[in-house]
Design brief:
The complex is a heterodimer. Chain A is mainly α. Helices cover 75% and strands 1% of the residues of chain A. In chain B, helix 2 packs across helix 7. The chains are: A mainly alpha, B mainly alpha. The interface between A and B is large, with 105 and 105 residues.
Chain lengths: 283, 304
């Protein structure tokens, strides 16, 4: 792969290079490939071990090939329920944090007002706070107010930490907009609503989608904050996996891990296709 | 938390936008309120909890009990220092791994750029707990990685450096730190990529034309221009790594436990809320101070 990449790189074709330079050009690919191996090896293990049929309760050593886990993904007791809860919480947290976060992003990037710096700081703080601090502080709040822990408290926490990610993503997109497009709409007698719905919103939409995707990924994958604000009756998928790590890991966990990986690649592919289609229409 | 002034557009782009002055308040209020109630207020509760005495069953009373802090810090100083040392090593390792990777993707990959970028992001979408469990498999005693370390006598070296213990890679500081490095690698790579991708390659050509050696060109041009990415990436790695307890729990042993583990245990197992709150609060303050000093020193304040 490295060689193919290097030979196809246009920078190499442009002019002949001294042997030392060619070597230097490839050294970076040695490092990059090593980094990719480091990053992707666990995923490869997750996929491989989803076809394992272990003897004991733990899926740590390769025993023999089997499709069992793929054919019976819900055979592990409690896992599919936890998955359903994670999806539900993830969807609600994504919708809420995307709506709130997009509004905040527009306010922060389109208006100047007293307290704007403070609002920016407030958005930044959750990103700079370790999860264990956010989780434990929310727990003290809920315990002090005698709010019962459960799905609602998990959702409150997830909306809180997803919000900042959405704001940052959407703000970056708004900052990259070409202001002349909106001016042109105004010059063509579009009113504010028309300019927003026909020009601004469609241009910002990919940023909102990226923010929503990020929010869902963060919510779906969160363990630390969730664990502080959950009860025994509200076990999310990461909590299930954590519990399994000490009690015995069903192969089905790897099936879900693999499926998530595939769905993510599929979603990114669709997103890229949609983006390139959009560009073609626009041009 | 703040009084919002009637809004004035940043740049008056359309005539009509000026009409409605309350727009920023309405746009901001729900999100800002949510963060105020569920981020700022809990911090105040946390600070208050740390100064209370009592128990979960009998209730707490606020007593300005500052000695909770000194007791907690003297008992758990080891875990505290260990957390920051591990987070620092993981951050530096992640930077050393991610920089060449981001550089290759941004400046050398050509039309493969987007595919390689997806390859950086994709692993992130499999639950990180599952991936950390996969590290248990990879580093397990009968795995190929352990036998490689054994045959090359690297294991002897790491044992001598106290990075591993006994005949295994798992349950060791080395496993915890490499797990931390691995888990936060995308957080390091993406900001680095973002700043390197904006780098104008003509600047490097100009440096070459002016007889700068490649190393000089890197040191004087590439590195300074990628500093915003370095700062963002190191913060995005260091902050979660310092508070993480997943890696030390799944890949470590009792002698590698980090402060996050202590806080979680004090809250959820021991139910010693004041101690846990004090530790949590100190962790928060320490990180805010480190981030503020670091950002000021690095001189990039427009992180967002």
């Amino acid at each position: 792969m490295t060689a193919a990449l290097a030979s196809k790189s246009p920078a190499l074709k442009r002019r002949r290079r001294a042997p030392g330079e060619v070597l230097r050009h490839n050294v970076i690919w040695v490092f990059a490939t090593a980094a990719f191996v480091y990053m992707l090896l666990p995923n490869a293990i997750v996929v491989l071990f989803s076809f394992n049929k272990p003897n004991g309760r733990f899926n740590y050593t390769w025993t023999r090939f089997s499709f069992d886990a793929w054919l019976h993904p819900c055979a592990a007791p409690g896992m599919c329920e936890s998955l359903g809860l994670s999806l539900k919480i993830g969807l609600i947290a994504t919708v809420a944090s995307t709506v709130l976060g997009t509004m905040v992003a527009f306010a922060l990037s389109r208006y100047r007002f007293r307290g704007r710096a403070g609002a920016n700081l407030l958005i930044f703080m959750p990103l700079a706070t370790p999860e264990v601090v956010m989780g434990s502080s929310l727990l003290t709040l809920f315990v002090s107010l005698r709010l019962p822990l459960g799905q609602t408290t998990i959702m409150i926490a997830h909306i809180m930490f997803c919000l900042s990610y959405v704001v940052v993503t959407v703000k970056a997109r708004i900052a990259g907009l070409d202001p002349t497009l909106e001016q042109a709409a105004g010059d063509l007698y579009a009113n504010e609503f028309q300019t927003f719905s026909r020009i601004t919103f469609p241009l910002v939409a990919p940023g909102i989608a990226a923010g929503a995707l990020l929010a869902f990924a963060m919510s779906f994958d969160d363990y630390i904050i969730t664990n502080f604000n959950a009860s025994n009756a509200s076990v999310t998928f990461p909590m299930y996996v954590w519990g399994a790590a000490s009690k015995g890991t069903p192969v089905q966990i790897n099936v879900i891990g693999t499926a998530m990986f595939l769905v993510a690649i599929f979603a990114v592919g669709i997103g890229r296709l949609a983006a390139s289609g959009g560009r073609r229409r626009a041009s | 938390m703040t009084t919002l002034n009637p809004g004035r557009p940043v740049a008056p782009r359309s005539r009509s936008r000026r009409k409605f002055a309350g727009a920023p308040i309405i746009l901001l209020l729900p999100g800002v309120l949510w963060l105020a109630i569920f981020f700022v207020v809990p911090m105040i509760f946390l600070a208050s909890q740390s100064l209370q005495t009592g128990s979960l069953e009998q209730g707490y009373a606020f007593t300005w009990h500052f000695s909770t802090y000194s007791d907690a810090l003297s008992t758990f100083a080891k875990q505290f220092i260990r957390s920051f040392v591990y987070a620092l090593i993981a951050t530096v390792s992640a930077l050393l791994i991610a920089y060449p990777l981001a550089y290759a993707i941004a400046l050398k990959a050509g039309r493969w750029k987007h595919i390689l970028l997806v390859m950086v992001i994709a692993p992130f979408f499999t639950s990180f707990l599952i991936r950390t469990l996969a590290w248990q498999t990879i580093l397990s005693g009968d795995g190929p990685v352990t036998s490689f370390f054994k045959t090359t006598h690297l294991l002897t070296v790491t044992r001598w450096l106290h990075l591993t213990n006994g005949d295994q890679l798992l349950s060791s500081p080395l496993a915890v730190v490499s797990g931390l490095t691995y888990n936060f690698l995308p957080f390091m790579t993406l900001p680095l990529f973002a700043s390197l991708d904006r780098l104008d390659p003509r600047l490097l050509e100009a440096a070459g034309d002016l007889y700068a050696s490649p190393i000089t060109a890197f040191r004087r041009i590439t590195l300074p221009l990628s500093m915003p990415g370095v700062v963002a990436g190191t913060l995005l790695t260091f902050i979660p790594a310092a508070g993480d307890y997943i890696n030390s729990e799944l890949l470590g042993n009792p002698n590698t436990s980090m402060i996050g583990q202590v806080i979680e245990g004090q809250f959820l197992r021991v139910s010693d809320y004041p101690t846990a709150a004090a530790l949590s609060f100190v962790l928060m303050i320490t990180i805010v101070v480190i981030v503020a000093l670091y950002v000021r020193r690095a001189g990039t304040e427009e992180l967002l």
